[in-house]
């Protein structure tokens, strides 16, 4: 997989890709991540990429021309399955979306800034818009990192245990059941006997029940 990220602040977004699972995926050449500074496509030598919005109002808007130049250059080099815009006024990222995106070959992620991008960018280029929650960040860089982490970990070969991602919360519209490790007793708190029994059908049954209960208590909306 190849991911191209268009950003006003490349230094802000690079760090998450230099550690942990995403770094491992890059080192194993299971994914390529390229960062493109939008100011490299600015309209003038002063790095102009934004302007005041028509109709008045506070906040600057990223202009269409620099974004058009950047995306068009990338599209001239390869085909892209998705061009994604990170924005709070979109459908919220969920596990199903991450699963779907983990199977694409090439995608562009455009990160917003200030008051966002000229609507014509969204109309002309964007194939999918994604939010990571009902709140506003200073820019889309951190949201893009969240999306990449959710997607990259699903690529075969990235995780050490291939079945790990399949048992995560939300894969079956349920939250994960409780998990325990050694010691089996600590400060009077004991691990449930069934988990120590070695009876794997019973363990699976216990986990399914606990996942259902946990979801009902915390996120009943997932059961609708």
Name of the CATH first level of the largest domain: Alpha Beta
Please trace the helix and strand order, writing H or E for each element. EHHEEEHEHEHEHEEH
Biggest sheet character:
5 strands, parallel
Residues in β-strands, percent: 15-25%
User: Judging by the overall fold, what is the CATH architecture of the largest domain?
Assistant: 3-Layer(aba) Sandwich
The number of domains: 2
Average the pLDDT over all residues and give the rounded result.
Answer: 94
**Low-pLDDT regions:** none
CATH topology of the largest domain: Alpha/beta knot
Task: Identify the CATH homologous superfamily of the largest domain.
Answer: SPOUT methyltransferase, trefoil knot domain
Report, as a whole number of angstroms, the end-to-end distance.
34 Å
Q: Name the overall outline.
A: elongated
The helix tally amounts to 7
Oligomer: single chain
- Rg, Cα atoms, Å: 22 Å
Please provide the count of β strands. 9
Give the strand order of the largest sheet, numbering strands 1, 2, ... along the chain.
Answer: 2-1-6-5-7
> Helices and strands: which structural class?
alpha/beta
User: Helical percent range?
Assistant: 25-40%
